[in-house]
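Practice problem: predict the structure.
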Amino acid sequence: MADQAKKDPYGHRADSPREMPKRAWKDIIARTYKRTWDDNVALVSAGVAFYSFFALLSLLALIVLSYGFVTDPHSVIEQMYRLTEILPSDIASLIAQQLLTVVESSAKTKGLGLLLAFVVAIYGGTNGAAAVITSLNIAYEEKEKRSLVRFYLIAIAMTVTALLVTLGALAAAAAVAYLQKLLPQATAAAVTIGRIAAYLLLIPIGAGVAATLYRFGPSREDAKWEWITPGSLFAAVAWVLLTAAFGFYVAHLTNYKASYGSLAAVVALLTWMYFSAYAFVFGAELNSEIEHQTAKDSTTGKPRPLGERGAWAADNVAHDDEIQDRPEEQREGQKLTEAQPTVAEEND
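Answer:
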């Protein structure tokens, strides 16, 4: 590994992120930080949070309508609350209140009206998915090249997948609730351990969801899974830490109700969604810059030369012109591969 780092100090010949030397990671982190400003990640994340907020009610409606086919819709409220216990109490209560409203509305809907409500909820949920796709195109420096029909089919697929994942989580919550009835009363220590375990379990789940969106969301040739993993893990860990920190902040360090009154829960939910979106988009920016660091083909399928891979991050390589203060001998050692050009097109 040390010999490889000397021959390729900036990772242009790396076949995976694991082969990137320390110097390469310094360049990647520096460019990622710069790109967050160039791509207005804060503003993009606010847009994702805004559209996702309005899509939330549609997703809750889908959950209730789907859950109602197999059991009493009222039971979804208790089980959903169990899933949202890791969130700040105001946010969990707001979601429970919205669920109750949806349950009461769905109880009056029958037959064709039920089907129509399901279709409308699917359409509403695609707005949040479309915002996520757009943010990924920005992070990966891509323009939307897919047809409008395909774009919305992907958004619908993302919405339905989110629904299925949530329904699976609800089923798991129901099973846990049943087991708790068979066990003695949990102690305070057991509750704390359970909460910590829930946070730890969220990391691989969040990383898996993020990786799937990073691979299939942007309008580009699919990246290999290993080139998506670093940003996915970062997004998942950052999201869990931000969720825990924000929950502590809301519960102990501030009083949203004193500042926002009846809108306190809504403001808290939007703020949490903004932090979540920022971690997600930043992870995509990180993945893009990692791909941008190597000259090797990071996309799926048979390896192709630069310029023919169907993805900006894979078709363009970060060149030493970005850092002019490197010694000449280091820049000379940064040559890419004998079979590929040594100068990559910059996108600054």
